[in-house]
Amino acid sequence: MHENLKNSSMQRYSWLSLSRIVFALELVQDLIVICLCIGLFSFMVLEIREMFVSLLPPLEFQAVTADILFLLILVELFRLLIIYLKEQRVSIGVAVEVAIVSVLREIIVRGVLETNWSQVLATCAFLLVLGVLLIVRVWLPPTFDGIDPEQEIAKRHKKRMAKEMKEMIESNRHYQD
């Protein structure tokens, strides 16, 4: 009787193991990112159609430029999502590029001459910081002395999970015997 309770509780805990919960949550997160990719791709197709319509006469330079830059922002966001799906990380370089193009788009759409001087100054400072971040990101190697901290943590986590699974399997065999 006592061993049956132990077996049922062990089966329940093995079903609710941390690795299975994490796997399920990561799967849901990947599905959400895939849905975002599909939605973003559909939106890009609609934006391309809108861009071609804006190329018809009378041609408005600001509108065409804003549409092209907006499309580039969408492409970069799509690339950011694809990198996340492949590598399970957010690319800082791509995120900074998206921010730079977004700020430049807003300046072009509003027009530099119509924008307050303090906003132009703040925008220049922001772009300077983003540019420095982008340059520093290029100069720094993606790994520190050949060790990617994220991958090392992931390896340790996988080893720990494998050890826990092995111990759980051995304890289940022990209880079954």
Tell me about this structure.
The chain is built from six helices and no strands. The chain is mostly helical and 177 residues long.
What composes the largest sheet?
Answer: none
User: What Rg, in angstroms, do the CA atoms define?
Assistant: 25 Å
- Could you give the distance between the termini? 15 Å
- Coarse morphology: elongated
List the total number of helices.
Answer: 6
**Helical fraction:** over 70%
Strand content: under 5%
> What low-confidence regions span 5 or more consecutive residues with pLDDT below 50?
none
List the helices and strands and how they pair.
Blueprint: H1 2-15, H2 18-54, H3 61-87, H4 92-110, H5 117-139, H6 149-176
Helix pairs in contact: 1-6, 2-3, 3-4, 4-5
Summarize the structure.
The protein is mainly alpha-helical and 177 residues long. It is built from six helices and no strands.
